[in-house]
Amino acid sequence: MSALSLENVSKIYTPRTAAWKQRFSSSGRKRGFQALDGVSFSVEHGEFFGLLGPNGAGKTTLISILAGLAYATSGTARVCGYDVVADFKRSRRSLGVVPQEIVYDPFFTVRETLRLQSGYFGLRNNDDWIDEILTNLGLLDKGDTNMRALSGGMKRRVLVAQALVHRPPVIILDEPTAGVDVDLRRTLWEFIARLNREGHTILLTTHYLEEAEALCGRIAMLKSGRVVALDTTQALLARVGGAHLEDAFVRIMHDDEFLGVTA
Ligand SMILES: Nc1ncnc2c1ncn2[C@@H]1O[C@H](COP(=O)(O)OP(=O)(O)OP(=O)(O)O)[C@@H](O)[C@H]1O
After folding, report:
1. How far is the CA of 70 from the centre of ligand 1 (A)?
2. Is 61 in the pocket of ligand 1 (CB under 6 A)?
3. Which end of the chain is more exposed for a tag (fewer CB within 10 A), N or C?
4. What is the Cα–Cα distance from 197 to 81, expressed in whole angstroms?
5. Where do the TM regions start and end (predicted)?
6. 77 in Cβ contact with 84 (< 8 Å)
């Protein structure tokens, strides 16, 4: 059983009015914007997997489907074998998601925020683990600080902490280092790499391709909602013939003929 699996997942964003028309139309024709088109791949337990693609390729849409925040129009998505729709609670419990956008409640301190998040998963008395996360993310002295008094980079650390409160076996990070300083990047990657060594499965999206090259064992590249490359980082570099992942990425994205997908 894979940590994450996607079988022929498609997503069409339908404008609200069109959704109603579609429901009552006899043609059944789907209208709207196709963000994902027949995406299939799986991520095995313990992998550090990169999901790459240009802006608008469909990465966040895919993550939203895995996290149960958006429904696939067709296809099946599973987390640790649990269907994200039919078995939502167990699939969501298996997953920690660090979202791309910084969202927080300005009325709580860091520790209150993490206790609240623990409560969503039915966890009381989670303070020992919360302390360990705070220590590893360099936030221990900010436990009693109000969320609105944190810098942007510190708020991002709290988002990472929130994703980890329930010790999920699978962690998805959606551009976690966008706009953060070198220190946090290092702290964050050391911590995430440690979690991966300890057995957590990691799925990472990032536009910093040198980070993906250094960290990810396998990579999927999305372009206009379709998987156009899927292989180990080394095999991708060897096949496309670039010195760095950035060269390979640019070649793949600009080559309409490239369909280097391997299962
Ligand atoms: N709620 C929505 N309604 C309509 N279209 C949407 C919605 N969310 C995303 N889209 C569209 O779907 C496409 C994929 O968006 P998505 O956010 O998944 O891309 P992404 O690969 O995460 O991009 P980025 O790297 O910029 O974060 C984009 O064209 C986007 O405009």
Report:
1. 12
2. yes
3. C
4. 22
5. none
6. yes
Domain holding 8, by residue range, is 4-94+168-261
Domain count, the chain: 1
Question: Is residue 52 included in any domain, yes or no?
Answer: yes
Residue 66 CB–ligand 1 contact under 6 Å:
no
Distance CA 141, CA 262 (A): 47
Rounded Cα distance between 184 and 176, Å, is 10
165, 129 contact by CB (below 8 A): yes
Pocket test residue of 17, 31, 33 for ligand 1, highest count of atoms within 8 A of CB: 33
- Tens digits of residue pLDDT in 82-141: 999 999 999 999 999 999 888 888 899 999 999 999 999 999 999 999 999 999 888 999
User: What would the pLDDT profile of 179-204 be if each residue is shown by its tens digit?
Assistant: 778 887 888 888 889 999 999 999 99
